[in-house]
Predict the 3D structure of the following.
Amino acid sequence: MHLSELVRLALQEDVGGGDVTTQSTIPAEHRSIAKITAKQDVVCFGHDVAKEVFFQMGCVYSPQVEEGVLLSTGTVIALIEGPTGKMLTAERLALNFLMRLCGIATHTFNTVQGLNPNMKVVDTRKTTPLLRRLERSAVCAGGGYNHRFALYDGILIKDNHISACGSIAEAVKQAKATGHHLMKVEVEVESLEGLTEAIEAGADVVMLDNMSDDELQEAVRISNGRVLLEASGNMNRERLLRIQDFGIDVVSMGGLIHQATWADLSMKMA
């Protein structure tokens, strides 16, 4: 969905027939300048969508900091200028977007900072419907990476696919027969036996699902560089520090997005 359409629908949801509080208290000709301030240390992300919210309400949003930068408490993130009533109508929606996206960027930063760069930490498709592009861009702003964007741009054979096909080998065979030559095939396995079967079947990537640290180390030994290894399940900062030098290529964490806490921001008239 295009950003302008997303914002239009969000404003329609929040404003409906009109902001009755602002209409009853603020003269139409009244103008103001406001500032959005970080009330905690935060990695900034979300200028584009916040700017679009204020633009659609006839206000000018001017970023004061770059995105992807860790800011200290009290930093002014943006200045807004325009009709006071329109600014107040846009306030909550713009802050909702910014607080959500800054929260994801900050959580990602706190999760991945200082890790071995040879082990990429990526997000998953566990995203808020229609906000995937924004949320996953926030992950990148925080220093993380993206997994496949959606169902159409990567083959990932999971347990239910394997069950329906009858075996890992059969699922990989069918995927390779229908997928084009540039599309890699990834298989999710829950055991070291499954890893061996996936490698022998010709998988390009194997996801090691909910395996212990010892199993992850053994998986690296078994694969011996023949496939790219992705670990997933029960991951947090502490565990990433433990496994970062095992030789795992990728760790996927849905929690980069769905466990992120909204950042604390405020908008005040200057």
